[in-house]
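Our working data are protein records whose layout never changes between entries. Instead of coordinates, the fold is spelled out as a row of discrete tokens. Here is such a record, shown just as it appears in the course material:
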Amino acid sequence: MASLKEVRNRIVSVNSTQQITKAMKMVSAAKLRRATDAIVQMRPYSRKLTEMIATVSANAEGAKENPYTIVRAINKVLIIVVTSDRGLCGAFNANVGKAAVSLISEKYAAQQAAGNVEILALGKKGGEYLSRRGYNVNTAYVDIFTKLSFTNVRTAAEAAMKGFEEGKYDVVELVYNEFKNVATQILKTEQVLPIVEQKDDKVKASSVDYIFEPSEEEIINELIPKALKLQIYKAVLESNASEHGARMTAMDKATDNAGELLKELKLQYNRSRQAAITNEILEIVGGAEALAAA
């Protein structure tokens, strides 16, 4: 059995850790509120823009000739991986990393073997996870969460779009966590480029009869780049909200676990203290009896 001093030191240590996890939970709860507000406000705009593109491009010849809709033989692949800059959020980052590895092994194994798969890491943890496993990681935009804004995300999105347009990449995939609620994040894998026909039942062409000015082709060519940037920005906002939700849940569980451990340690401390007192009493009684016998 551990000594009283060792158990006492462990109680102090666990108590300090519990205070830290409790504070981190409160900080994440405050950040989660702002992050949730941002993504909730973004979703209707993103949904409507996607609906407009589906409506306009349904019969527009210009949409078929847009450089972002050209389907080529897949030789070079870019995978955008959205994670966080910090840990202590459960399996949040590891799940995205595993999803990216799974996507490469199942869909782009031949391209990876030829060295034609590039990872664009948005968030430090995803870049570190995949770098350790030998993947080609572009870390130019890894610190995007240091100052999260549409301007910073747009720069990363434009780099991916330019690479596709110039033929540097034949397909661009996006892997991230979609925010559902505090305890649930949905892992998402989406093809960003080339743009393919929407198969999602939630996104359908509107039946509204639009009047186009100047023309359908010019409008679609203007909307598609904006929609692509918005799609990546929305994924970053989803991931940001999911990160705070995951960290809040993880810190809540850590705080509860620290409480359970404190109960066990205090019980162990009391038992050790009682055993020490009992031993002292036995020694005193034994000594008294030895003196009486003498």
Q: What stands out?
A: The first strand starts at residue 77 and ends at 82. Strands lie at 77-82, 117-122, 136-138, 171-181, 184-193. DSSP finds seven helices and five strands in the chain. Helices lie at 4-57, 61-64, 92-107, 109-113, 124-132, 150-165, 216-293.
